[in-house]
Amino acid sequence: MRGVGGADIETAIALFKAGNPAGAAQSCRDVLRHDRRNVTALFLLALTQMQERNFEEAEHQFAKATKLDPKAAEIWANRGNNQIALGRPERALEFLGRALALEPNFPEVLYNQAKLLADAGRLDAALAAYDKCIALVPHFTDALNNRGVVLALLGRKEEALASYQSCLAIAPNAADTLDNRGTLLAALGRREEALASYDASLAIAPDAVDTLINRANLLASLRRTEEALAGYDRAMSVAPDRPDLLDRRGNFLAALGRDVEALASFDVCVSIAPNFAAAWLSAVKLLLARRRFEEARNVIGRLLAVAPDANFAQGCLAFAKLSLCDWDGLPEVVSTLRDQVRQAKAVTLPFHALLTLDSPHEQLQCAKARAALEFPRGSVANIAPGRYDHGRIRLAYLSADFRDHPVSRLLAGLIERHDRSRFETIAISFGPDDDSEMRTRIKGAFERFIDVDAFGDFEAARLLRTLEVDIAVDLMGFTEGCRPGILAPHPAPLQVGFLGYAGTTGTDFIDYIIADRIVVPEQQRAFYSERVVHVPDCCQPGEPRRVAARTPGRSEAGLPEHGFVFCCFNQAVKMTPEVFDVWMRLLSRIDDSVLWLSAANATVSANLRREAGRRGVDPERLVFAPRVPANEDHLARQRLADLFLDTTPYNAHTSASDALWAGLPVVTCLGQAFAGRVAASMLHAIGMSELVTTSLEAYEALAFKLATEPALLGTIKAKLAAHRDTHALFDAGRFCRGIEAAFATMHERHRRGAPPEGFAIAAHDVAQDHDPP
């Protein structure tokens, strides 16, 4: 057909092929002035508009063309592509589907459809589309590469690797595929092969910043420190303004203890990208870990200003305020936090939740949210251990706290008492050597002590597999220095949470948690991702401990010579305004009484004294006990106190055990969740359940009664002294028999092929001859 001025559709096609979309468009419009129903002209005009990035106009022309010729598969296909350019994926899928209904063997359309389905998370459908595409065009390298990505996301890692290999057999210089293969090999634990794949990719595309970052991340996971840092710096030379790189480099520097450089990296990041919440949060985590709470609180304020819903920010704010005893506005912060938890948001780190949310259900939600972010399903290769046939059950205890730390002080006696004829004990240590007496003791208690601090998580996991560990015992949970990534590949047949973390991890790779009937009642089992094992008595081990022979004088300890001494040697972060209200009412009601607390930083002391004044109590009635070098001296000075007042929702744990051994009664308020029920468990185990209350009103009443009735308090102290050597709490042999029975039961179930399941060890199973202190 010939139009005005000699223009015809052949001319338009020739101009389009010659790379002249404007000329082609004009020719099409000339044709359409005389023939509005010319489908070819409408289609070609739409294509020219796509080239000119006039996507809305292109859609207008495509719509006309498909209305006139609804059976033209090519037009529907290109209309779908135009919708992709417009950012309308669902509409694009609709149009691509129309094209495939007309022409099922259309590889380019199948490829585009598969990409859209993958982006929408419809992975099975995406895989089916890629499979059809590759069946039609076996050498379609982009489809082979993307198919590998989808298979990896589905957790079908070996098939994904085969897809990448097929792509590379056709296109050995496909840099993106080499990068993807490297990431997959790293996830499979084949770290050296992964590194070689990244190197091959970079040989082709040396400035590919994503590959540079992936390679540096891998080196960091391998603990090849200097090479990893050089890798991050190389990536920075290519992309100096990339926020995620600055954040990752900062976190790596923080892990090396190079705080100044780490914070500088975070500062540069947020100056470039003020709304990049991850860098703000990284700075907050570093400051909190270094106990720089005031700085952390200020940074959190800036973070919330730019990203009110940033992951974990609200929980970090609550933690910082609690750590400073800065309670102004705290109820509102906790209320907001609780609201966001109910909306299933990742609003608080699990450990912070133990201090702010006295609800096992909410704590489980918080733990699951972190676990989902850190270990998304299919992201970790399972090492898949078998069933071993050892003469003894091989136990590996994992911790960063094999040093002068409360966990080691509680654990040492248990490890020393393990029945070596039945159990082999291994320490997997990834924390500092403080060259302390406790480090020496705990190291000597284990049959083997292995330092894996220089290992990456997967290498440490692979070591557990090589050692054929029967039961891996995690002593960390989500406490500072934890490395849950070591157990994420499930390198041991059975994996158990114990002692160091009073809550659930929310993961699917910790099979059991050691508890007792008080810290985790039967009706709360559902709030733990682990199967709950009840040991008799108390789930916190105890043993006799040294107490210095000399008791300091009151004045030497900073206490008045006369008057009743309430004390609480818990960390400041466990104190809440509600409990402090009770304490101040007790001081107001009891003349000459004082409250003796562990010394913290100057800000905490000032804040607590200010809060006392606000409640009408002389701030000088708060006395702060400085840290003493030896725990035996701290135990000795507790003889000067009359009554230990516990905190809630997070109780005294080791502090309560210390107080009870020193002969100091502990009054506690039973909380709802594990962390708030430990002191009650200990009091029951030592036969002092009368010191357990179930409300703050009852807690206050009991403390007042004991403080004002000397005879009653004397009776309580005498009973405590008598029970110390006769009851279960400090009977380390009894505790050892109980937990060994638990380990043996788990192991026997596994040998029978039975899945993990909660159970209880009966008291009569451990009631052998008393193991005297």
Overall tally of structural domains: 3
Supply Rg.
33 Å
Identify the strand order in the major beta sheet. Answer: 3-2-1-4-5-6-7-14
What percentage of amino acids are in beta strands?
5-15%
Q: How confident overall, as mean pLDDT?
A: 95
Major sheet summary line: 8 strands, parallel
Judging by the overall fold, what is the CATH architecture of the largest domain?
3-Layer(aba) Sandwich
Shape: elongated
Classified by CATH, the class of the largest domain is Alpha Beta
Instruction: Report the helical percentage.
Output: 40-55%
How many helices? The count is 33
The fold-level CATH name of the largest domain is Rossmann fold
Structural class: alpha/beta
C-alpha termini separation: 107 Å
Describe the structure.
The protein contains 33 helices and 14 strands. It is elongated, with a radius of gyration of 33 Å. Strand 2, helix 24 and strand 3 form a beta-alpha-beta unit. It folds into 3 domains: 4-201, Tetratricopeptide repeat domain (Serine Threonine Protein Phosphatase 5, Tetratricopeptide repeat, Alpha Horseshoe), CATH 1.25.40; 380-542 and 733-773, 3-Layer(aba) Sandwich (Rossmann fold); 565-730, 3-Layer(aba) Sandwich (Rossmann fold), CATH 3.40.50. An 8-stranded parallel sheet has the order 3-2-1-4-5-6-7-14, covered by helices on one side. By secondary structure, it is α/β, with parallel strands linked by helices. The termini are far apart.
How is this fold's topology laid out?
Blueprint: H1 9-17, H2 21-34, H3 39-51, H4 55-68, H5 73-85, H6 89-102, H7 107-119, H8 123-136, H9 141-153, H10 157-170, H11 175-187, H12 191-204, H13 209-221, H14 225-238, H15 243-255, H16 259-272, H17 277-289, H18 293-306, H19 313-324, H20 330-342, H21 350-356, H22 360-374, E1 393-399, H23 406-417, E2 423-429, H24 437-445, E3 448-451, H25 457-466, E4 471-474, E5 494-497, E6 512-515, E7 531-534, E8 565-568, H26 577-589, E9 594-598, H27 602-614, E10 622-625, H28 631-637, E11 643-645, H29 654-661, E12 666-669, H30 678-685, E13 692-693, H31 696-708, H32 710-723, H33 732-751, E14 759-760
Helix pairs in contact: 1-2, 1-3, 2-3, 3-4, 4-5, 5-6, 6-7, 7-8, 8-9, 9-10, 9-11, 10-11, 11-12, 11-13, 12-13, 13-14, 14-15, 15-16, 15-17, 16-17, 17-18, 18-19, 19-20, 19-21, 23-24, 23-33, 26-31
